Amino acid sequence: MHGWLLGTGMPAWLAGVFTVAIFALLGVSVTYAVQRLPASGYGMVARWAFRAVLALTLLYLLLGIVMPYGEAGIIGAIARRFLPVWIALIVTFALSFAFRRRLGLYGKLFDSTIGMIGFAIVMFWVFTALFAAADLILTHDPLAQVSGMKNKVPGTPVKAAGEGVFPWYLLGGDNLARDVFSRMVAGSLIVVEIAPLATLFAFMVGITLGLPAGYYGGRLDTVLSFLANLILAFPVILLFYLLVTPEIVATGLPGYMGAVMFLFPLLFATVLLNSRYRTRPKLRTPLLAVVLGAMGWLYLSLVSAAGTKIDFLPGFLDLFDVPGGILVVFVSVVFVNSPTVFRIVRGLAMDIKTRDYVAAAQTRGEGPWYIMLWEILPNARGPLIVDFCLRVGYTTILLGTLGFFGLGLPPESPDWGSTINEGRKLLSIYPHPALPPAFALLSLVLGLNLLADGLREESLRD
Question: Is this model's pTM higher than 0.90 or not?
């Protein structure tokens, strides 16, 4: 199983020609996807190239899934390991395309080639993370070291593989004899766990502070804008370094910061429900009690951690424990992203508050928070959704940067940044440990950017 393509018997020259053809067609396909090409001439050539590479890719993946592991080649075997992901993608696209006219902005995304490509790439890694958590894709333990597999090339058989043990290292072994393929797949789970949730929390902070700053203006706007600019004045990497260093972590500062920032979802939910049902107290009061009770319990479980300076929740009430390194990275990402979101929301609020429908709501006697959350915020959803996608990509890069410099997460963590850093030391001799996580990081960020472009295009049409 040493052939990178369809099988071990394929001649090297034919495999090389096939690989060059695939990459050439892929380059033309990207040109077709990104630019609006004419209907004739080179535009027609690009379209047929796009269809050809799509057909070849689907055929190749299908052969890899159907053929036995020993005959499918490395890429074919990898395609077979991702079978649950392919099924999930097909089901998602089929249902989304069938009901796209009823799905609002999400449904309109399927009218954009760029948006569909970006969405497919992003969902590929999301499903990969989900199925990796269910142990349906991993071939080996990402932290396990197998004797004799140090720096082995892709497709190397595992010596004395027992029953139930996958017999190959599909993408080779790293300098500690760990499976590169499993570490790349496990790294997607870390990104999906941290990046979207941290960005969502940053948006909660930015929206809760940015709306009143833009709507009221005056001294409140001056103070909050000054604090946001003060944080943004620090270089991002330096700020991250200060927050995740062991000396700062030992003081408990990231924990205290998390305790403050994690309050903002509770504040947001409170003002959201109170402003909506202000005139219906019989519904508002029990609804607030249930929602805030559940969110408060989650909040206490999140900020209370055994063995830290914030440890006040009894063990039987603590729903979950977040590892210290992940919590520190999470808090750092929220803290760094919140000021930028604040400035975007503030600018949108200052623009939208001058619209006629806001004046009509004020004439009806609606309260300020109702106007901010139910008049201004819904009409700012387009730019905010686009920025959310871009910010998740930005956060993914930050996580990779932290891992590359060995900050925050444990050294043995399979996150992409740490794996790239370990592989770069022998890059000139053994390139295979560093390239898969680097390609994974690049593809996810590219997918998020393409998705944001598609959403921006459709939101402008809307």
Answer: no
